[in-house]
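Pilot study result, target chain (288 residues):
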Amino acid sequence: MRNIRLTVAYDGTDFHGWQIQPNRPTIQGALVEVATRLTQERVMLFGAGRTDAGVHALGQTASFKTRSALTCEQFLRAFNALLPPAIRVLRCDEESPDFHPRWGARAKTYQYRIYRGRIVPPFEHRYVLHYPFPLDEDAMAASAPLFEGQHDFTAFAGPEEEDEGRQRTSIREIFGARVGRIGRSSIWADAFAASSEAPGAQPPAGGSPVEGNRADGEELAFTVRGQSFLRFMVRKMVGTLLEIGRGRLTADDILRQFELRDRSAVGPTAPPQGLFLLNIEYADRWRV
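Predicted structure:
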């Protein structure tokens, strides 16, 4: 039995999230349908995490086991020939029998994009939150690192969260969190280049592969890297930072809610379309 690992990018706009749901288009459902057709087997396909409806990915990881004799290159070509255009398999690799994309993940990086210009380009509206109103970006940037470290993120999760870890706990460790302007022109090219590197490769030192500088464009991004995340956690963090930018909350409110765990005292859940799963890190891959 072979263990096939896929690195997947997708536009989540027209899908009801990652997880298979009856009579609804999902990312996992589309991948399972194609894998079943190619292998003529009953396929169990696992992902590194569940993205919600409308959330996108540039480096999601999935795996399935098969007795098929198709090579990884043949799988790669066939998946991209049969999948909807909004889903692309960037890499296909054979992994060790015990590899699991969820339990083996060492870190995940998400990015939330906010378009700050007066008029959002029609080609970008599916991938950003449009917010042209005044924001104290410096206050947001100063507050973002307060999420770093190990904390109880109950206040920053949905009321019916399903965590990405083995244990039902709201304790999470964030390795890095920052707010800054990014360059729009290189976002897609840089992100796809990063996804095409060896599986499990870490982002370049200093941050995400799509990070730019303040003069690069009209997009503000929150980039966060952690071991795992609660449901809605990144979007609640973004909502809180926006409230800080509006002057309705302060940095102290972040620290206070680690202790008080009051969901009503932090910012609202930001809309899904600005959120991207950028990258998932693993230990050195098994060599076939």
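One observation from the pilot: DSSP finds six helices and ten strands in the chain. A full batch analysis is planned for the follow-on phase.
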